[in-house]
Amino acid sequence: EPEVTQTPSHQVTQMGQEVILRCVPISNHLYFYWYRQILGQKVEFLVSFYNNEISEKSEIFDDQFSVERPDGSNFTLKIRSTKLEDSAMYFCASSALQGPETQYFGPGTRLLVL
Amino acid sequence: GDSVTQMEGPVTLSEEAFLTINCTYTATGYPSLFWYVQYPGEGLQLLLKATKADDKGSNKGFEATYRKETTSFHLEKGSVQVSDSAVYFCALGDSGGYQKVTFGTGTKLQVIP
After folding, report:
1. What stretches in chain A show pLDDT beneath 70?
2. A24 at the B interface (CB within 8 A)?
């Protein structure tokens, strides 16, 4: 069964450093999403992406965040200058159709900012 | 804005016990409701869904009924197994825009033999 994959599974970085989290969505999917979960808190929507542009973003998704689909298979989330509060589990999701029930999630990347 | 509140865990049950995980929501309009499950080391999987009031979603022996009057979507299973040990997330689907999912905090279930 096709699945969404994410790399790395864990990332440790120093505050102020840039990180890139990578996702490979399911190959025929058109809609892509990033969510995050700070430890012990809710899974929060960050951004959705369709047709090579951001379609919706949350208040969390400020100027330090960016997303890209660089090569038609990967979908990346870049955090330009990490802060301690960026430590979280980041989930990528993709869907073939518009709508939450069709979203397939990856296993997540656990980011720790020191 | 939309929000989901679910009971805190962890929940520890013996095999074959009855499971209830409570979930309530706040939303404008008529959202779709979901339960997702995350097994250790894996991604979030859609367990079941309900798209309108009084709908019952079911899958793998789990059930949840969309109760508009009590804004609830409690997850139940009559007889849990060790393999059901996972984290369960209640969620709702935004009825507008690109339909992002709003999640609860998750409830960890541990089933012991």
Report:
1. 99-101
2. no
